[in-house]
Structures are given as C-alpha cells and as structure tokens.
C-alpha cells in the first residue's frame, strides 16, 4: 500500500490503457479527427503540428531489470521473526519510563519507519503525556519542550505556541545561552516547521535555529554533525517516510543509547516493505510498457473511450450507495485539460500572467488535484458522496498539496523548461510582475513554500468527511515533490540523488546480523 500511495498520480492509467486495447473501444468516437502517433508530430485534419521536445534522456531503469527484482524477505520465517520482534517493541513503548525517554523512543520508532505498526500505542503514550499534571520535566529543557511540541502537533494536537516563551530573554529574543545547546537547537528547528500562520514566535524560532545551526563552532561528534547537516538540508517534516527511514536506520545504529531490538526490527521491516515495493513497481512498469508513452498523442481518444467503457461495465457506479462517480471523474479530467489549454493560449499569444493568475491555474494544470482524487478511491474503503463533493471543491488541504508540487517543481525545473521554450513559471512570473532579480524571485517563491506548509499544518487539525490514509496522502504528495525537485528536475532528468533514493528503496536491502 505504501508504494501505491507514492504512485497515486498513475492510478487511473490502467483504466486508460485498458480502454486503448479493449475490443469494445469505439473506432469512430471522433470521426472527423485523424490522430497519428509519430515521435514529435501530430496530424489533425491534415494539419501537421510540430510538438516541442523536452529532450528528456531515456530511463535508466531497464524493464527486464525491474521485472527481475526479487527478495527473500517474503519468506514465512522472516514474517514470524518480525511478529516476535514487534511484540518486544510494543512492550518497550508500553513500558514505564520518564516522559523524555518515552518521547525519544516514540520519535525513534517513527523515524525508523515503524509508526504504522504502533499507531494505538503511540497515541496512548502521547495522550498520557498531555494529561501529566506536572510539566517541570520539560519546562527548562529546550530539547524536551520542542520534541514534545513537535510530536503532539504531528499527531493532530494543537499545542499552544506559548510553551517557548520561557526560552526568551527580557528583550523578547531567544536567549543567547541556547546557542550552546546543539541538541535543543536541533529539536527547536525541527519543531518550527510545524508552525501555523500568524505564530510569530515559531517563525522567530525557525530563523534563530537555522542561523545558529549553520554557524555552530567547537567540537561536535560525527553523529551530531551528520544530524545537523541532514536537518539543514531538509527538515524532517518535509521528508518522505521511507527515505528518512533508510537514513535514520544507519544513524540510529551509531547511537550510544539505541535499542538493539528496535534497530533489528526496523531493518527487517524495511526489507520486507521493500519486497512489496518491488512487486508493485513491476506492475507499474508493465503499465508503462503497455502504452503510457502513447497517452500524449491519444489523450482525446483515451478519455472518450474511458468514459464510454466505464459506463458500459458500470465499474465506477456504486450501486449499493445510489450514486455514480462519473460526473466527478469527468470534471476532474476536464479541469486539468482546461487548465492546460489556458496555458497553451498564454504561450501562443505571448501573454505573461501575473503570479496570482499563474498559480490559480497552475495548481490544477500540474495534475495534483486529479492525482489526489484518484488516490481517494485507492485509500478509502467506505466511499461516500459527501466526501466526493468535498474533494471536488478542492479544499485547502488539497490545494496546499497541489501548490507545494507546483512551487517546488517550478523552483527545480523552470530554468530547463524556459530554455526549451516553455511557459513562464512562478519565478519568472514574479520577476516579470515586480522587476525583481531571479535570486530575489526564488527567495520569494521559496518563502511561499514555507507559508503553504503552515496552511497545510493548520488543515491537518480540521474535520473532514474522509480520514486516513487519504488525509495523509495530501502532505505526502508535497513531500514527494520536495524529494524529487530539491536539487533540480529529479523527475524529468533524474540525477544522482534520485537514483540513490530509488536504489535504496527498491533494490538494496539492509544487511542483517
């Protein structure tokens, strides 16, 4: 299921591809049009249109190699071993210990990628901490206060920002003595990314900790140096769970107070999840070979065939609930195509939209709302019309997810896209509108990323007609975008960091004892 959530943008592809190959597909859905596949040429009504090429390099993933991926960790002996280890770790979490030790254990469990095994135990432990009558254990400890704040907000508890007031001096600034507390600075830094709009003290904490972590002087252990560099590279809140788990397993192994049973369970679980990923990516590769490359040329035919076919077989009609999702699916696709058409008109007319105009359209043209819409069906057992209607309106949490994909994509790819003659992107729209330099414009768009995460954080506290795992699919799409576009176009032109992530996720298991 984890991989399916990661690849949710492609969930509708098997249906589209089935439509292409189905013997029931009408051959005259659009009789006045002749659509012909050629590498970069489309013939419509005898008019030849030359498509601009992105010049993307070929995939470095050989189809046969992907299909050959296999793992020993599907064997029953590993399942039995994991079951026993899980019971031992559950005993650790439920055990009696001081509050800070319990928080650090929960944090380690989550960063090791094991949260999904212990949802109930973690919730109960955090509830117990909320109801402690004495907060003396953390009131003067920056690390304890910040860790408690982060974990509780991460689990949907709106902890007041005022818990950090005691760490300020009489001038209203964070105390200079905190600069010597690297562990506390690092915890406060990570906590600051769970801030909400208008929380000035959290914004100040982010600025304060970022500056001081960058300028730390004196001797530090290799472990601390590694953690600081990792955090400054990207905060924990923005990282993909499985990518972080691989990194943290290696880091946790070097910790003096690490739990051997927790570490071994994390390694085994990682390898078992990887074996599931291998099977699912093999299925995704077969979809691609079967014709995804044809979609750009045949999108019109595909969509018409899709709606005709699904209506024939009644696949999307939820008979027992008395409603049909076809109108919602049709609108989701139509919204994307309309947004793309608007961008095409802007391009061919030479129109330069304002940043606001661009973003209002681009959050849809990027395809994220459609991706999230389709992921709802994969992640939800009890589909209901209220939720479909709500999702159709693009609520804030979905808009934020779409905005994160759009902004991070633009920061990572706009230079290459403009070089091949594409539309203006967010950075260039801001430059054109304000006369700012590219450096200033990039800083502004990067700040929009931070502000969008604040809105996303707020959205996670609200009530919705849907629940997990679809709820978490929204920030996870934002995290996926940050992972792929952190250093450039890691999706269209995969570089070393993309290869490294995918190889560690899909190919290389972690050695066990």
TrEMBL record:
Molecular-function GO term, any one: terpene synthase activity
Domain Terpene synthase N-terminal: from-to ranges: 61-232
The keyword rRNA-binding appears for this protein: no
Domain (Terpene synthase metal-binding): residue spans on this chain: 284-455
Biological process, per Gene Ontology: diterpenoid biosynthetic process
Keywords, in A-Z order: Lyase, Magnesium, Manganese, Metal-binding, Signal
Signal sequence, start to end: 1-18
UniProt-listed InterPro entries: Isoprenoid_synthase_dom_sf (IPR008949), Terpene_cyclase_plant_C1 (IPR044814), Terpene_synth_N (IPR001906), Terpene_synth_N_sf (IPR036965), Terpene_synthase-like (IPR050148), Terpene_synthase_metal-bd (IPR005630), Terpenoid_cyclase/PrenylTrfase (IPR008930)
Cofactor(s), names only, from the UniProt record: Mg(2+); Mn(2+)
Record's protein name: Valerianol synthase
């Amino acid at each position: 299921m984890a991989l399916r959530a990661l690849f949710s943008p492609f969930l509708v592809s098997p249906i589209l591809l089935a439509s292409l190959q189905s013997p029931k597909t009408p051959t005259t859905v659009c009789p006045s049009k002749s659509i012909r596949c050629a590498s970069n040429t489309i013939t419509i009504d005898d008019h030849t249109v030359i498509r601009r090429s992105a010049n993307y390099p070929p995939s470095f993933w050989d189809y046969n190699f992907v299909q050959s991926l296999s793992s020993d960790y599907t064997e029953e002996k590993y399942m039995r071993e994991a079951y026993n280890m899980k019971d031992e770790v559950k005993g650790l979490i439920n055990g009696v210990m001081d509050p800070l030790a319990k928080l650090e254990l929960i944090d380690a469990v989550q960063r090791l990628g094991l949260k999904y095994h212990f949802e109930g135990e973690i919730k109960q432990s955090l509830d117990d901490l909320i109801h402690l009558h004495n907060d003396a254990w953390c009131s003067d400890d920056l690390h304890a206060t910040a860790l408690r704040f982060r974990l509780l907000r991460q689990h949907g508890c709106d902890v007041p920002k005022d818990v950090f007031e005691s760490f300020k001096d009489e001038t209203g600034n964070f105390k200079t003595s905190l600069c010597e507390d690297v562990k506390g600075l690092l915890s406060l830094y990570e906590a600051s990314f769970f801030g909400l709009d208008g929380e000035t003290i959290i914004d100040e904490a982010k600025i304060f900790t970022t500056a001081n972590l960058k300028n730390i002087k004196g001797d530090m252990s290799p472990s601390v140096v590694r953690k600081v560099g990792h955090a400054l590279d990207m905060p924990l809140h923005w990282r993909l769970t499985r990518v972080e788990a691989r990194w943290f397993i290696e880091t946790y192994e070097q910790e003096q107070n690490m739990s051997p049973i927790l570490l071994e369970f994390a390694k085994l679980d990682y390898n078992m999840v990887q074996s599931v990923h291998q099977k699912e990516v093999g299925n995704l590769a077969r979809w691609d070979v079967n014709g995804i490359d044809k979609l750009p040329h045949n999108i019109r035919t595909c969509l018409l065939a899709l709606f005709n076919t699904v209506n024939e077989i009644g696949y999307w009609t939820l008979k027992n609930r008395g409603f049909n999702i076809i109108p919602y699916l049709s609108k989701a696709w139509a919204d994307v195509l309309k947004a793309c058409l608007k961008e095409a008109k802007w391009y061919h007319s030479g129109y330069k939209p304002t940043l606001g105009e661009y973003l209002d359209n681009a959050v849809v043209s990027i395809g994220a709302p459609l991706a999230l819409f389709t992921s709802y069906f994969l992640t939800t057992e009890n589909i209901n019309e209220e939720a479909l209607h709500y999702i159709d309106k693009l609520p804030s949490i979905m808009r934020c997810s779409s905005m994160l994909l759009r902004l991070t994509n633009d920061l990572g790819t706009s230079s290459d896209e403009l070089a091949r003659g594409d539309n203006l992107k967010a950075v260039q729209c801001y430059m054109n509108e304000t006369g700012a330099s590219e450096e200033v414009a990039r800083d502004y768009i990067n700040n929009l990323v931070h502000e969008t995460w604040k809105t996303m954080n707020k959205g996670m506290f609200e009530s919705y007609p849907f629940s997990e795992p679809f709820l978490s699919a929204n920030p996870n799409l934002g995290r996926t975008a940050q992972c792929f576009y952190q250093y450039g176009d890691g999706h269209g032109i995969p570089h070393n960091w993309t290869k490294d992530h995918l190889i560690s996720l899909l190919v290389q298991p972690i050695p066990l004892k």
